[in-house]
Amino acid sequence: MACCFPVTFDRSRKGSFKFGKSSSDKFSRSSDGGGSSRSPKSRSFSLGRKIEKEGLVVCFGELLIDFVPTVSGISLAEAPGFQKAPGGAPANVAVAIARLGGSSAFIGKVGDDEFGRMLADILKQNKVENCGMRFDANARTALAFVTLRGDGEREFMFFRHPSADMLLTEEELDKDLINKARIFHYGSISLIEEPCRSTHLAAMDVARKSGCILSYDPNLRLPLWPSEQAARQGIMSIWNQADVIKISEEEITFLTGGDDPYDDNVVLEKLYHKNLKLLIVTEGADGCRYYTKAFHGKVHGIKVQQVDTTGAGDAFVGGPMNNSVSTSETSLISAEVPTALSSFDPLCCVSSPN
């Protein structure tokens, strides 16, 4: 739920992380999104370009405006002013993949307002296919105020009462676009309220039946949930359906009820499920850990000058995911996981401006 669009990637560092299904056909999208019924209150918008099916990653969820203080290291109340920036974790991942030269698309809903149209245009500028976007004339684009305080803690304030992203319906879902994907990526924020929750579940069902790899980053934002119990239950309700999961140390502690996030047995016994191909635990500046059915290990971070960690987790996800779809291989090559993750571990700890 944080902005990482300004991240600059080092394209010289490459890995070979591979998983997914193979295909070679191409498709182009028209302005009406094609193949999905639409509410008369909603509009669609398309980039109007061809997408490579064999490498397409479709990201589903929220797209919003982040307001970030013009001065760093202070609380929201202390901020003298704010600068607007595009945000939303699934959209961040889509942009990260596109900036790395990959093929990505975004599905979600924004208000039919200035901010919503601005966000659609930003996706277009970043070469993310946006034909899956819908525009609601009766709801506003979501807003979030976010800061990294001097004590290192992030502070959020959300305005969603309700916002357009919460109102996406199954009838507005571009199922044809999902069917073209090799990976379907999503978070948990779209599970909080109806009708978006049912739409999220329907999108997962379409993706699973079409043979997509299901990629899940819970992206815990407690202030958006009715309670901690509701958040834990909501996040875990789709846990066992994912093929790939990325979580943080804090999310392990939360989801396990306070267990040690650095204990491999905790991760393997409480969070790793039998259908999972890969579980990644990000550790900020310390890098990440990875778990597969065959083995697990750690990739250490690279020391850099930290600018802003906001959105770094989303940027991290985009790296190995882009590599995973850059090949026609039909299975996860587990032995190459460390190589792929080490190619992008700087993104665990820094989000750099242009």
Please tally the helical runs, counting DSSP H or I stretches of 4 or more residues: 9
Structural class: alpha/beta
> How many β-strands, per DSSP?
16
Q: pLDDT under 50 segments (min length 5)?
A: 6-41, 43-52, 329-335, 343-354
Tell me which oligomeric state these chains represent: single chain
Q: Explain this structure to me?
A:
By secondary structure, this protein is of the alpha/beta class. The chain contains nine helices and 16 strands. A ten-stranded mixed β-sheet has the order 2-8-7-4-11-12-13-14-15-16, with helices on both faces. A four-stranded mixed β-sheet has the order 6-5-9-10. Strands 1-3 form a two-stranded antiparallel sheet. The longest helix has 14 residues, at 196-209. This is fructokinase. Its EC number is 2.7.1.4. Residues 14-44 are annotated as: Disordered. May play an important role in maintaining the flux of carbon towards starch formation. It holds the Pfam family PfkB.
Give structural attributes.
single chain, 354 residues, alpha/beta, 10-stranded mixed β-sheet, 4-stranded mixed β-sheet, 9 helices, 16 strands, globular, disordered C terminus, ATP-binding
Short description:
By secondary structure, the chain is of the alpha/beta class. Helix content is 24%, strand content 23%.
What's the topology here?
Elements: E1 26-28, E2 42-44, E3 50-52, E4 56-60, E5 64-69, E6 82-87, H1 89-99, E7 103-111, H2 114-125, E8 129-136, E9 143-148, E10 154-159, H3 175-179, E11 183-186, H4 196-209, E12 213-216, H5 228-236, E13 244-248, H6 249-255, H7 264-271, E14 278-282, E15 288-291, E16 296-299, H8 312-324, H9 337-342
Parallel strand pairs: 4-7, 4-11, 5-9, 7-8, 11-12, 12-13, 13-14
Antiparallel strand pairs: 1-3, 2-8, 5-6, 9-10, 14-15, 15-16
